[in-house]
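About this split. The held-out portion is used to measure sequence recovery: a designer receives only the structure tokens and must propose an amino acid at every position. Recovery is the fraction of positions where the proposal matches the reference. Here is one held-out target exactly as it appears in the evaluation file.
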């Protein structure tokens, strides 16, 4: 076995096929930065020919300096019966201007004859010519052999001939796709082994999770000699999803000592998974291996007792290795060390036994019970700590606000306007603003009123707004959690609000965003004098 495994993330392409997932260009760029920082080697981002959104993405991603990852565009072999040069889909891949191109092609004879309806020979030509075309353009080319395992089981000679055509065309890596997701780990091992023994180029695996065995299949392929794993970081994808890379990386790097990402990045595994979930606006399963909230949560009394004496009595790895935390669900000390480190950022004199620590933990528990979650909202978290430590003062007082939503007759659009009255040091300010929706209007009106007193708020704008419905069981009284991301061009911060009323939840998050900015600027200004 090699001691390095190449991690290839397809969240932006295969992941985007999942039900309920839709990425904006902004979301995609954020995911790229997150994956790159974590140390993933390849990020696959779709086909620029498929829509203008993708074209904009490829244009903007070029301008980002990536430390670890290469961006790959993804497309099919040329269509049957035409030359590569004539194929507009192939040509459109070039417009992405990426260093890496992934070409998928058929390796199952049944798909060739019955689905794309061409001859077995023509399919091999399609693979070889398409790959050669991109190699001649100076690209690194990865070949994804679609349905390879089903194809091999049906007609091993033909499946191998498809790989040989790719190698002849100049493939830098041949990837065996377990497209239908139903193969067993022992089959994957046997078949991958044959491929590794036959070809000299690196071999990869691309498993889907329809049988619940994608991780096992990826691991077995690696055991058989594959050195490249394609999946999505937190496992979402069409149907039952792609292989979950956060689990694969945890297993290979910690248990098999195979380097998937730079070793010092392993402590960021949990944070990376949660950040991607937040950007994708999906709930990360609590029980997700390594990174889930409950992955190291102990509830039973005997288990807690055991873990307190020796953590490995009930834990397969130390949660700190992947940046997760041990939680004792019935105990008072839940997450104390993590919270303490955050408290000490505000006041280094506070210790774990200080009464303030208990006060803050109690307050956080109370808020979590109400539906707050601070994983993606560090700034609200910091404000709560400040409030409990007395390192906070309100910057303004709300007198009242009013929001009007209008749908004028004969007009296609809804419009919203907001009126806000605030007081700062007894001085009142009243303003109104229009916006693309009630929250946007409210944000504009509030900042306009406060800019009179705090001109530095002029630089602030919202970059993201996300709403998640909680308590889905009782739909009538459903609570919403609103996450707001703001920037002043220098920093980015995220705040959170929870309420049964979406406007109120947004207001709470908006106020936190503004207060965080004002505190941040004051601290910066006075730091040199402290
Ligand atoms: Zn796939």
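Reference sequence for scoring:
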């Amino acid at each position: 076995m090699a001691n390095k495994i190449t991690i290839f993330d397809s969240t932006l392409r295969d992941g985007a096929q999942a039900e309920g997932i839709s990425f904006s260009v902004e979301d995609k760029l954020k995911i790229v930065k997150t994956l790159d920082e974590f140390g993933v080697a390849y990020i696959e981002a779709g086909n620029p020919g498929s829509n203008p959104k993708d074209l904009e993405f490829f244009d903007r991603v070029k301008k980002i300096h990536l430390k670890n990852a290469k961006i790959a565009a993804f497309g099919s072999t040329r269509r049957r019966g035409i030359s590569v040069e004539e194929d507009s889909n192939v040509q459109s891949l070039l417009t992405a201007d990426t260093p890496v191109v992934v070409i998928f092609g058929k390796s199952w004879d049944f798909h060739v004859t019955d689905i794309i309806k061409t001859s077995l020979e023509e399919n091999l030509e399609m693979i070889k010519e398409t790959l050669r075309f991109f190699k001649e353009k100076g690209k690194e080319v990865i070949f994804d052999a679609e349905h390879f395992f089903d194809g091999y089981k049906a007609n091993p000679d033909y499946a191998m001939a498809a790989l040989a055509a790719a190698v002849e065309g100049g493939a830098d890596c041949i990837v065996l796709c377990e497209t239908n997701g139903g193969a067993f780990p022992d089959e994957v091992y046997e078949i991958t082994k044959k491929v590794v023994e036959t070809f000299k180029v690196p071999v990869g695996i691309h498993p889907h999770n329809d049988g619940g065995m994608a991780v096992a299949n990826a691991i077995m392929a690696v055991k058989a000699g594959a050195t490249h794993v394609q999946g999505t970081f937190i496992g979402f994808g069409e149907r039952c999803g792609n292989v979950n890379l956060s689990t694969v990386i945890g297993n290979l790097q910690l248990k098999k000592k195979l380097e998937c990402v730079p070793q010092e990045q392993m402590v960021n595994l949990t944070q990376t998974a949660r950040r991607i979930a937040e950007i994708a606006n999906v709930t990360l399963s609590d029980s997700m291996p390594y990174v889930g909230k409950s992955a190291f949560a102990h509830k039973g009394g005997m288990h807690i007792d055991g873990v307190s004496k020796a953590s490995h009595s009930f834990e397969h790895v130390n949660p700190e290795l992947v940046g997760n935390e041990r939680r004792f669900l019935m105990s008072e000390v839940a997450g104390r060390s993590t919270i303490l480190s955050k408290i000490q950022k505000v006041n280094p004199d506070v210790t774990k036994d200080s009464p303030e620590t208990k006060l803050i933990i109690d307050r956080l528990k109370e808020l979590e019970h109400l539906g707050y979650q601070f994983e993606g909202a560090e700034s609200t978290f910091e404000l709560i700590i400040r409030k409990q430590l007395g390192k906070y003062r309100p910057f303004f007082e709300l007198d009242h606000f009013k929001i009007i939503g209008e749908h004028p007759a004969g007009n296609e659009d809804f419009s919203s306007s907001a009126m806000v009255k605030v007081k700062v040091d007894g001085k009142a300010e009243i303003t109104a603003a229009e916006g693309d929706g009630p929250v946007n209007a409210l944000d504009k009106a509030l900042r306009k009123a406060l800019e009179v007193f705090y001109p530095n708020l002029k630089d602030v704008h919202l970059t993201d707004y996300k709403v998640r419905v909680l308590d889905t069981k009782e739909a009538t009284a459903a609570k919403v959690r609103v996450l707001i991301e703001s920037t002043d061009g220098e920093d980015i911060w995220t705040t959170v609000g929870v309420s049964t009323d979406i406007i109120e939840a947004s207001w709470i998050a908006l106020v936190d965003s503004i207060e965080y900015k004002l505190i941040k600027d004051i601290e910066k200004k006075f730091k040199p004098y402290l």
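Annotator remark: Confidence is low (pLDDT under 50) at residues 330-334.
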